[in-house]
Amino acid sequence: MSDSSLSPLLSARVLGLAQLGLIVLDINQQIVMWNQWMASRSGKSAHRVLGQDLFDLYGELRGQRLEQAVHSAMQSNLPQQLSPALNPSPFPLYPAGTWGGERVEQAVSVTPFTEGKERYCLIEVSDISIIVGRERQLRSQAEQLRAQSYVDGLTGIANRRHFDVALDRELRRAQRNDGQLSLLLMDIDSFKAYNDHFGHQQGDACLTLVAEAFAATLQRPADLAARYGGEEFGAVLPDTSSEQAALVAETIRAKIASLSINHSPAATRQHVTMSIGVATFDKDRLADAAAMLAAADSCLYAAKKAGRDCVIVYRQQQENAA
C-alpha cells in the first residue's frame, strides 16, 4: 500500500500555488512560515522574514487589531476574524510584483493550532480587491439610479417624485416645529400654442431653458425646483412665509419674462411668460400636501384668468373673495 501523505516537496509546491497568503507564527510571534503568495505581494522573501517577530517586521501592526487577534487566538484557542470594513488593508501588500501604489484589500483570519507540544498561529490573508471593487461599483450604480429616479430626464431639475417626497418631508418638519413652508405651482403661458407653432423639439428646448432659469433663481440649498408635469413646474420653499414666497415667485416671473423667448403668433403675449400660484402652510387651513397643492393650483388658475404673467397668493385671494 502506498503512503498517501504529501511529500515535503509536494507540500512546498502546493503552498507555492495557494492563492492566498499563509503565515505561521510560533508562541513568540516569530515567523516560521511565509508562503510565495506573501512574498510576491510584500516584496519580502521567506528567507528574509523567517525567524523575525511579525510585529517588528511590520511596526505599523503593533497595537492594532491583528496583534490583538493573535494574542486572543493564542489565549482562547479560538479563531479570530478581522472585519474588512474596519481593517481593509492591514498588511502593506500590493498587486504581485509591484510592491507599491495602492494596497490590495484584504480579508484576514487568525487560527491557533498545536503541533506536538508547540503552539502556533496561522494567519490567512485573502485579496478581496475585486470583490470590494464590484461592491463599490454596484453601490455607485445604485446611487446613480436613485439619483436618476429623482431627476427629470428632459430639463435636469427635480421631477414630480422628488417634489412629492420633498414636500412631504418639509410638511412634517413644519408640523413638528410649527414652522413656515410655502410652495409654488407655475405654468408656461399658452405653451400649447408654442408647441403647435414651433414643434415639439423647439418646445422641449423652451422647457429646458425655462427650467434652468427658474432653478437658478432659488439660491438656498433647501429650496427645491421641480418639473411638476408637462409645462408645469413647482417649488418647495422651507422656512418661507407667504410674503417671502410672493417675492420669490415675482422674481421667477420676471426672470422668465426677461428671457425674451419669442412666442407663437397665436399666444396672448409676444414672449414666453409664466403664471404662478402660491400657497403657504397653515395648521388650521392648509395643513397637508393635498390642501396646499389644491390652494396653489387654484391660485395658478386664477392667475391665468387674470391675464397670465402674474403671481397670485392664496391668502390674498381669500381676502379679495371676502
UniProtKB/TrEMBL annotation:
Q: Which residues form the GGDEF domain?
A: 179-316
Q: Which reaction does it catalyse?
A: 2 GTP = 3',3'-c-di-GMP + 2 diphosphate
Q: Which InterPro entries match?
A: Diguanylate_Cyclase, GGDEF_dom, Nucleotide_cyclase, PAS, PAS-like_dom_sf, PAS_4, Rev_trsase/Diguanyl_cyclase
Describe the location of the PAS domain by residue ranges.
Answer: 22-77
Enzymatic class: transferase
Where on the tree of life does the source sit, at the highest rank?
Answer: Bacteria
Output the Pfam families linked to this UniProt entry.
GGDEF, PAS_4
SUPFAM superfamilies registered for this protein in UniProt: Nucleotide cyclase, PYP-like sensor domain (PAS domain)
Q: What is its EC number?
A: 2.7.7.65
Could you tell me what this protein is called?
diguanylate cyclase
Taxonomic source organism: Duganella margarita
